Amino acid sequence: MQRSPIELVRVAQTVATLRHLATAAPLAMARCWHRPRPRTSQRDAIQRALSPGLTSALLIGGNRSSKTTAGAMIAVAYALGRNHPHVVAWAAANGIDVSVIQEGPGRVCASALTASDSRSVQRAKVAEFIPAQHRWMNRDGNGEARVVFASGGSIVFKSNDAGARRFQGDAWDLFWADEEHDEAVYQEARMRLIDRSGRALLTMTPLLGRTWVWRRFLDQAEPQTALYALHSGDNPHIPREYLDALLAQYGPHERAARARGEFLTLEGRVYEDFRRDLHVIPSRPIPVSWPRYQAWDFGTRNPTAILWTAIDPADDTLHVYREHYRSGWTIRQHAEHVNQIERCPCGSSCPACQLHPGRTEPEPRWRVADSAARGDRQTLAREHNISTVKSPKAIRPGINSVAERIRPNAEGRPAMLIHDCCANTIREIEGYVWHVTRSKTDGPDMPLKANDHAMDALRYLCHRMARSRQSGASA
Question: Could you give all domains of the chain from N- to C-terminal order, each with its CATH number?
Answer without folding.
Answer: 24-250 (3.40.50.300), 281-470 (3.30.420.280)
